[in-house]
Specification:
- 34% of the residues lie in helices and 19% in strands.
- With 1103 residues, the protein is of the alpha+beta class.
- The protein has 6 domains: 169 residues, P-loop containing nucleotide triphosphate hydrolases (Rossmann fold, 3-Layer(aba) Sandwich), CATH 3.40.50.300; 143 residues, no CATH class; 180 residues, Beta Barrel (OB fold (Dihydrolipoamide Acetyltransferase, E2P)); 52 residues, SH3 type barrels; 216 residues, no CATH class; 58 residues, no CATH class.
- Strands 2-3-1-4-7 form a 5-stranded parallel sheet, with helices on both faces. A 5-stranded mixed sheet has the order 31-10-33-34-32, with helices on one face. A 5-stranded mixed beta barrel has the order 17-18-23-26-25.
- Helix 9 crosses helix 10.
- This is Probable ATP-dependent RNA helicase spindle-E.
């Protein structure tokens, strides 16, 4: 059909040339295509015609569909450039209400795409089918509005006359029926099937039945009618009345109701309004670069939340604030600002009007933000988590989880792919020809990232001999001041923002081509320049040598504990330590550097003498210390930013205060720093206290108090990339444990490199007394050289005139790229994609050392036409709170069954849904049943807190038979919201232990349990409860014999870990993990999963 359309364009052009050879402007052609992909394909074909040298026809293609910006849409009314013919490529958006005066010809593919919803799964998809005759007649009316016109339909006339439908399928037969059923309930004229059966085109009975089940799942309908259970009907609830009154999708109305319950009504209304209009973000860039730019801008609006809804909320609030402050004085200023931010100003205005309309309608239901004394107040850090809880509740059961749980060996594979480099800061290219000398082209590879605003100084490029991989590591640049948070891109977890940019670059198909020399000429060029030598057919580059490795103060392999002082604290993940053994040497250096006579003679004559990276003297606390120049300040007074290398702090120092090393002490510049960088080992910030994953100020203050006591003792867990991972001993406990006890931190796994280094240090320390003194010294130096990063020399690239060949690199790739899976039965066997415009379209494992399940929630789910793939839309990454997915499922599901392991000693899985038929135990709404396998310990007291929360939510929405609104006083509302806040914080702050995952064939089957096995609950609100109490099952105590067997098994694992020989593969019975060799046993014994298991059975390793 595309070929026929192109031929028609040629024919039309020839006709026009014959009829009006001297016309100043050419008439336009409107082509109707079914969808965006088809438009893009046709556009490419037309652009290819324009690229032909001897082509006599010049065409100007313009896209027209719902996703392009208003400015782009207006281009259809502009005249084409002189000599060009405008060709408008449109979906059915141009069928009606749009008149383009100069359109004389219409080419109609007679195809269309309609949104069809499967009521069973609630998945919607765009289905391609023939347009109706009515649609085709409407399209033909777009031609010849002000002149004679012609229409060409690309179907045989016989097929058009005899096979195509006269009219389109009515919306009631293909679209969701939730709002229709709710309005039918408001009529109070009988069951919805009876009322809807009177329609001119009544929907299928199965669709009505599934819609009723869905409304019961959402809380819009009760399970009963006047106290009697009914499958085909249910009394409308207060939530259902709100859903019927609001001009929104029912799930968005539920978002608002839950926002009211949790005290975040205003933000919930903004999110609901934003999801109801066309996207406020513009992604339809013409170039790969503009697509990347739009993604990065949206990522900045998301501000580390990993949520499209948060991005939308922040964009709206920023626009609203700028309008209120009169920063956007007119429409031109608004459009210019919106284009810079890749925002759609028309959508923002529609969103604002809809928000006002929603708030007015909510007033009629007495849903509003309470006065300050009645209103529950959330701190900013708490609000992020609460909004995500509200999102999880509103869009249940659109839950998606990450890949396999408890895969503790997975992290080793990540480091293997990257040749030992940190996956959180490293990506890689492939297809680099091994015949070339990679070091020569490092600068060209760095230039690939310039369009992403990643400077070459922030990039380190490495090449592996004999490998096609090019490793690109993004590093910290101490020059940058990140105090202005608006300039820093924040993303979830430990992965650097540059990794997200790099992966998006590949997805946007940005150019990754570098110019290279002929391999033989390159070898001669590099050898002549002294960059290295070709040895046995392998290029050996010259590396930067580490000076004085024996003078470094990093802990040696034999040092387990050290005493000293903490000199400077950035946070608990970055502070600096001065060993007590270095105190005298440090004081001697200070005395030498602060000789007044020498300082007077060591002034710099000119700022030009001071260069970046120079080691010099600068004042700190009224005494001169060694400092490294980071950058020149751009302030009015000439200042330099310096890093005090023997303290760890940075400061801006005036030029006249800087001093050079005088000749007698010039060698001091080469002495390594007398401090080393540290971070607290085996803990991470509490997600409840710090949703952004950064250490809080409170933890910094506590660490400062610890440092102020004077000399502290630290225990070295490992040293990775010249950073010591440590435990601070204080009295009978540790500072690390203290933070966990105060719920400011939680226990966590170290990464694979840290655990490997810890294992190596333990084995060397156990053998320390067997080494001779000279062997120990050699071991120390070798160890320090292994942990200090080595770099290739930074060399200038060869001139481009010498680079006459090209290599197209593939990538960048990251081993952290992952997939998600649907938790509902309807999507369990389908592959899942995230929409391209989402901040989560670059889907990475944000915390690779953490094997816990991560939950993603989608505001909408659609299916591809084949039905094999579902697409999650408007997604939100839930907080990295262990067990969060299970807790949210328990909190918001209609009902659930908890599953136990075979010995009934722990809960291992959750089956949630609408429930089952008590006569045959078949699920009521099987397609929406959710199965979650637990990876943390859930206890009966968690059920008690969940049921208290469900009761509070029910109480805020409870209406008796005959009531339309809850009869609840404002003070009671405030008290219930305060109780909800208290319970939520308590529930989420709990440190939960790892458990091994159990998968059973009965996980998705509703089972009958004896009443003696069920812990009794009281149905306080009876059948008028939207969130009925959840039943827990009785847990049995661990048997003594079984615990003893596990204790002996742990002894055996620790014994095997001491050997260096091969062992037979075995499974850890405590954690259900398969272990193939001694190294895997050692790493597994250091994992949080195993340590929690040992703690549970009270195992203590033998010394």
């Amino acid at each position: 059909m595309y070929g026929i359309a192109l031929k028609l364009i040629y024919v039309i052009d020839n006709i026009e040339k014959h009829e009006a050879p001297h016309a100043a402007y050419k008439t336009s052609i409107l082509i109707f295509l079914p969808g965006i992909n088809e438009i893009d394909k046709m556009c490419r074909l037309i652009e290819d015609i324009n690229d032909i040298d001897d082509n006599t026809i010049k065409l100007s293609p313009i896209r027209l569909h719902s996703l392009i910006s208003p400015d782009e849409q207006l281009k259809i009314f502009h005249q084409a450039p002189p000599g060009y013919r405008k060709v408008i490529l449109s979906t059915n958006i141009a069928e009606s209400s749009v008149t383009v005066p100069d359109v004389k010809y219409v080419i109609d593919f007679c195809l269309t795409k309609s949104l069809v919803t499967d009521s069973a799964s609630n998945f919607s998809c765009l289905q391609l089918h023939w347009a109706s005759k009515a649609n085709c007649r409407q399209r033909s009316g777009r031609a010849g509005r002000v002149m004679n016109g012609r229409v060409y339909r690309l179907v045989p006339r016989y097929y058009y006359d005899n096979c195509m439908n006269d009219y389109s399928v009515p919306e009631m037969l293909r679209c969701p029926l939730e709002n229709v059923v709710l309005r039918a309930k408001l009529l109070d004229m009988g069951p919805p099937p009876d009322i809807l059966g009177l329609a001119m085109n009544p929907p299928n009975l199965s669709d009505i039945h599934n819609t009723i089940l869905m409304l019961k799942e959402l809380g819009a309908l009760y399970m009963t009618v006047n106290g009697t259970y009914s499958v085909q009907d249910g009394d409308i609830s207060f939530m259902g009345r709100i859903m019927a009154a609001l001009p929104l999708d029912v799930r968005l109305s539920r978002l608002i109701v839950l926002g009211y319950i949790f005290g975040v009504l205003d933000d919930a209304v903004i999110m609901a309004a934003g999801l109801s209009v066309r996207s406020v973000f513009q992604f339809q860039g013409k170039t790969p670069h503009s697509d990347c730019e739009a993604y990065i801008k949206k990522l900045s609006f998301a501000d580390g939340s990993g949520s499209d809804l948060f991005a939308m909320l922040k964009a709206y609030k920023l626009w609203s604030s700028m309008c209120e402050q009169n920063n956007l004085r007119d429409d031109d200023a608004q459009y210019a600002w919106a284009n810079r931010c890749h925002l759609n100003i028309r959508s923002l205005k529609e969103m604002h009007l809809l928000r006002q309309e929603i708030l007015e309608r909510l007033e009629g239901f007495n849903l509003k933000t309470r006065n300050s004394y009645q209103h529950v107040h959330w701190m900013d850090r708490e609000k992020t988590t609460i909004l995500k809880i509200v999102i999880a509740g509103a869009f249940y059961p659109n839950y998606f989880t990450r890949t396999t749980l408890n895969d503790t060996d997975r992290e080793r594979g990540l480091y293997h792919i990257l040749c030992g480099n940190d996956p959180c800061s490293t990506v890689y290219f492939t297809n680099f020809n091994t015949k070339h000398i990679g070091q020569l082209y490092a600068h060209y590879i760095k230039d690939i990232f310039r369009d992403l605003e990643i400077g070459p100084q922030d990039i380190e490029v490495r090449f592996q001999p004999g490998s096609e991989k090019v490793l690109v590591t993004f590093k910290n640049d101490l020059e940058k001041d990140y105090d202005e948070s608006s300039k820093r891109l924040v993303v979830p977890g430990r992965v650097r923002p540059e990794v997200y940019k790099a992966i998006r670059m590949r997805m946007s198909k940005m150019r990754t081509v570098i110019n290279v020399m002929d391999p033989r000429l390159a070898v001669k060029y590099a050898e002549d320049k002294g960059y290295g030598a070709m040895i046995d057919g392998v290029w050996q580059s010259v590396k930067n040598q580490i000076k004085h490795p024996d003078l470094y103060v990093l802990p040696s392999v034999f040092q387990k504990k050290l005493k000293g002082r903490i000199t400077h604290i950035e946070n608990c993940g970055k502070f600096f330590f001065l060993p007590i053994t270095e105190k005298n040497r440090f004081n001697e250096m200070l005395d030498i550097l602060n000789d007044e006579k020498s300082l007077d003679t060591a002034r710099f004559m000119s700022p030009a003498e001071v260069a970046k990276g120079m080691i010099l003297c600068a004042p700190l606390n009224d005494r001169y210390q060694r400092a490294m120049v980071l950058k020149i300040s751009s302030t009015a007074t000439l200042q330099f930013k310096v890093l005090f290398i023997d303290n760890g702090s940075t400061a801006f120092v005036r030029f006249e205060q800087l001093r050079a090393f005088w000749p007698q002490i010039a060698s001091m510049a080469e002495i390594p720093p007398r401090i080393f960088e540290c971070r607290l080992a085996m803990i991470e910030p509490s997600t409840v206290r710090s949703p952004n994953g950064k250490w809080s100020e409170e933890t910094k203050e506590l660490l400062q108090e610890c440092a102020d006591t004077g000399v502290v003792e630290i225990e070295i867990f490992s040293v990775v990339e010249a950073v010591a991972n440590i435990i601070i001993n204080i009295g009978n406990t540790t500072f690390n444990d203290l933070l966990v006890e105060r719920k400011l931190a939680r226990s966590s796994d170290e990464n694979y490199l840290s655990k490997s280094d810890h294992d190596y240090r333990q084995r060397q320390q156990a053998l320390a007394n067997r080494y001779l003194d000279e062997d120990q010294v050699r071991q120390k130096v070798e160890y320090l050289e292994s942990i200090l990063p080595k770099k290739d020399k930074d060399i200038p690239p060869p001139p481009l005139t010498m680079c006459n060949k090209m290599i197209r690199l593939r990538g960048p790739f990251s081993p952290l790229e992952t997939k998600i899976f649907s938790t509902v039965r309807a999507g369990s066997w389908k592959s899942v994609e995230i929409e391209r415009d989402s901040v989560n379209s670059v889907l990475l494992d944000t915390d690779p050392q953490d094997v816990h399940e991560r939950l993603y929630v989608a505001a909408g789910v659609t299916a591809t036409q084949s039905g094999e793939t579902i697409v999650a839309r408007a997604t939100t990454l839930m907080p990295n709170i262990h067990g969060f997915g299970a807790l949210m499922t328990m909190l918001f599901c209609p009902t659930m069954q908890i599953k136990r392991n075979s010995s009934c000693t722990k809960y291992v899985a959750i089956l949630a849904g609408l429930g089952y038929n008590p006569t045959n135990y078949k699920p009521l709404y099987a397609e929406h049943d959710v199965v979650l396998n637990l990876d943390v310990e859930i206890k009966t007291e968690d059920f008690e807190m969940i049921n208290q929360l469900r009761y509070c939510m029910d109480s805020l929405l409870f209406t008796d038979i005959g009531e339309e609104k809850p009869s609840i006083l404002p003070k009671q509302i405030g008290d219930l919201q305060a109780k909800i806040k208290q319970l939520i914080i308590k529930l989420l702050s709990k440190n939960r232990k790892y458990i091994e995952t159990h998968v059973s064939e009965n996980d998705n089957i509703w089972l009958e349990h004896d009443s003696s096995e069920i812990l009794e609950t009281v149905a306080v609100l009876g059948d008028r409860s939207l969130f009925p109490m959840l039943p827990a099952l009785v847990l049995r105590d661990e048997q003594y014999d079984k615990i003893q067997a596990l204790l002996l098994h742990c002894d055996e694992l620790h014994r095997l870990a001491q050997f260096g020989d091969t062992v037979k593969p075995l499974s850890c019975r405590l954690c259900n993990q398969y272990l193939e060799n001694v190294m895997q046993i050692r790493i597994h014994l250091l994992s949080q999963l195993h340590r929690d298991g040992e703690l549970k059975i009270r195992y203590k390793p033998k010394k």
